[in-house]
Amino acid sequence: MLVNRRTALKQALVVSAGLALLPACLRKTAPASITLKNIAVDSEGESMLALLADTLIPTTSTPGAKDVKAHLFALTMVDDCFKKEDQQQWTAGMKAFSELSEKKTGKSFEKSTPEARAALLGELEKAKAEDGGAAYFYHATKRLIIQGYTTSEYFLTKVQVYELVPARFHGSIPVKPASRRTA
Amino acid sequence: MANLNTSAQDRTFDAIVIGSGISGGWAAKEFTEKGLKTLVLERGRDVKHLKDYPTTNKYPWEFQHRGQIPEAIRQEAPVVSRCYAFKEDAMHFFVKDKEHPYEQDKPFDWIRGYQVGGKSLLWARQTQRWSNYDFEGPARDGFAVDWPIRYADIAPWYSYVEKFVGISGNKDGIDILPDGEFLPPMELTAVEQYFKGFVADNYKDRHVIYGRCAHLSEPQPIHTQQGRVQCQKRNLCQRGCPFGGYFSSNSSTLPWAEKTGNLTLRPHSVVHSIIYDDKKGKATGVRVVDAQSKEMIEYYARIIFVNAAAINSNLILLNSTSSRFPNGLGNDSGVLGKYFAFHNYRATIYADYDGFPDVTTEGRRPTSAYIPRFRNVKKQETDFLRGYAAGFDTGRRSWRSNDGFGTSLKDQLFNEETGNWYVGSHMMGETIPKESSQLTLDQSKKDEWGMPVLHINIGYDDNDEKMIKDFHEQMEEMYTKAGFKNIRTGDSKQAPGLDIHEMGGARMGHDPKTSVLNKWNQLHAVNNVFVTDGACMTSTSTQNPSLTYMALTARAVDYAVGQMKKGEI
């Protein structure tokens, strides 16, 4: 009898573990493509970030933020370098951002039209990070995506060349007349 | 460990050097060149020049966090995380807080580099000489004790080490900051040149000069013989330099010592104490705890140099007790661990300048301009003692607007705008060593190597606060008159220690009753033990101290070997 009870207990544990996993299974979400230690962002969240990156710094004749994986850099930074309370604010803000998109357009950010996405970002541009919620998420993410883009291999080899070995310092040289670069 | 089976004879050397940093490296070089079999003990791991600089050739995008320290590490190591150089590219060269705990009465940020080469891999490489105005300070102003040496005693040794190290500098002919053996200077910027001229025209005793630094601007045969080549102006020094462009023990003194065949380097060696023989009236060796196996091993030598870095050198001496020295080796006076001091780096002042709109800088420069001390130099002028030097750095600001999104944002990111010049300065203030500023041992707590835990009691005083105020006032006046705009003063309130210029505790002096070391950096009471790192400093003055440690070390080795040959040691 004792053995049976043990077995029963074990089975019960297995069942409850399965139940705990169930909601996640039902939603059929996959994990993000990079390992996250502190924040919960799944593949859906990752694609939304990729789209946000591409909306902020789009692919044109030159690579955009999504092409250089600036959204994954942003995710890594939030996961590794943000304080716990900022991580919480960011993940809550990410949810608020999705909800705001639904509210404004009736559709998720990804299913919205480019025009609707632009309208949403235009609105968030006017808000400040301190306003919290979606505005915090937007501005914190934008800052990281710009950082990731402007320190990417593409940017530092093709746009603003980083020299590992400059081998020179000039204290006073004429400012070169700026020639506009096509982005 | 094989050491347990080695005979005492195998563990006997002519000289033992405790520490492989900037001063220990020099002791090793000097002893081995003079033919002494020398054991260098280093508590950390080995770091071989070129081979052990894992990040040295990495591009910015190769750092996962673009240089930033992950939050988990910051939380676990708040002290070292406050250090300006503790970034993703060099964090492997710093001691994390829990790796060597200590106690603080008031906040003291103890920044350490436990590896072969120590902090010489990480230093800021500024190399300004002291002058008699510095050495005569305590005697003139009535604090600490009189330095037992003057500029004339150390000047030839400054020259000696400068030639080998390679110092880029300009002969400025200023008595407060004597000229040295210089390789050519790098350039000042247009705004630095302007400010230099402005200050010369408007202030009789104030100077803006090129900050002398340990970089090979034009290597000489003595440098190429070390395998070092011209500084490539990468400004990535803290990673270890593949060119040997700046001086470190790893690139210079240690490989040089190794070539003599007289060097034995033992990493992972935490020195527990110096062995004192009551009958001989001398130190006979050191007790080492192997950092990995934790076993204790003794090594023996005729001469012992303590170069563990200021705080750890105090710790070793305080822990070296015997019936003759119950309070620490050579501590008859009771001053060992006391009169500890540092440099006050709290104050900054930044501004913009709209002059020179047509010119800018190009490339990178591993130094900046420097303003030697001008306060209370020739006579007492203020209601505080001593004064401050200042770094002075300028550059052309460039910026991009991050406003908006889409193609307009991308266009902004692609097209950087040139802004005004920025000017910035930070103070390097002399602090007054006080008896109450003290390092002690907490015998109730032992660290993992069986060493008592170090207890630090030091803080800022009224003199420091007055000096900060004066720095802000004087610099603001100079900035304003020079036409700099948007002046912002700052006080970081950073804890002592973050300057990484901790000094004293085993000060030099004439009198054994009030000092630990004599004019040769030799313990008054134990003539075969010398301390030539920051622990020996009687006062701090304002200069970055490493050059002085190197000169004092070479001088002390020369003396010690001379004494040994005469049979005195």
From TrEMBL, chain A:
Return the InterPro entries for the record. Gluconate_2DH_su3 (IPR027056), TAT_signal (IPR006311)
Q: Which domain of life is it from?
A: Bacteria
From the Swiss-Prot or TrEMBL record, give the protein name: Gluconate 2-dehydrogenase subunit 3 family protein
Q: In which organism is this protein found?
A: Chitinophaga rhizophila
From TrEMBL, chain B:
Q: Which UniProt keywords apply?
A: FAD, Flavoprotein, Oxidoreductase
Show where the Glucose-methanol-choline oxidoreductase C-terminal domain sits: 433-552
Matching Pfam families, A to Z? Answer: GMC_oxred_C, GMC_oxred_N
Q: Which organism is it from?
A: Chitinophaga rhizophila
Cofactor or coenzyme needed: FAD
Q: What family classification does the UniProt entry report for this protein?
A: Belongs to the GMC oxidoreductase family.
Q: Which SUPFAM superfamilies match?
A: FAD-linked reductases, C-terminal domain, FAD/NAD(P)-binding domain
Any keyword Flavoprotein? yes
The record's annotation in Gene3D superfamilies points to:
FAD/NAD(P)-binding domain (3.50.50.60)
The record places domain Glucose-methanol-choline oxidoreductase N-terminal at 230-322
- InterPro entries for the chain: FAD/NAD-bd_sf, GMC_OxRdtase_N, GMC_OxRtase_C, P2Ox-like
Its protein name is GMC family oxidoreductase
